[in-house]
Amino acid sequence: MEESKIPVWRKYSLSIQEAATYFGIGEKRLRSMVAENTGASFLIEIGTHTRIKRKMFEDYLDEAEVI
Q1: Alpha-carbon distance values, 6 to 13, 37, 50 (Å)
Q2: For residues 15 and 54, what is the distance between their CA atoms, to the nearest angstrom?
Q3: Which pLDDT value is given to residue 5?
Q4: Buried b (16+ CB within 10 A) or exposed e, 17-29
Q5: Angle, helix 16-23 to helix 54-63, in steps of 10 degrees
Q6: Fewer beta carbons within 10 Å, N or C terminal of the chain?
Q7: Max Cα–Cα distance, the chain, nearest Å
Q8: What is the CATH number of the domain that holds 17?
């Protein structure tokens, strides 16, 4: 199966790896943030995988003073 050619900035949701690269946050810290914010509106769980809703996470980061 060929990998999707949709640019990361156009995707609705991002994997942890994609989000880490896109937002410039380490994967370890991002996974910690996901664990600390279980049930947050910027998270979506698909089976055992957690994805981050890109736009909603951008809004969350805009309001955050410390990550």
Answers
A1: 11, 27, 19
A2: 10
A3: 87
A4: eebbebbebeeee
A5: 50
A6: N
A7: 41
A8: 3.90.105.50
Tokens of 11: 């995707």
Which residue range is the domain that position 20 belongs to? 8-63
Contact 14, 21 (CB under 8 A): no
pTM, rounded to two decimals:
0.85
Query: Which residues fall within 8 angstroms of residue 61, CB to CB, at 6 or more apart?
Result: 23, 67
Distance CA 21, CA 16 (A): 9
Residue 2 counted as domain residue: no
Report if residue 42 sits inside a domain. Answer: yes
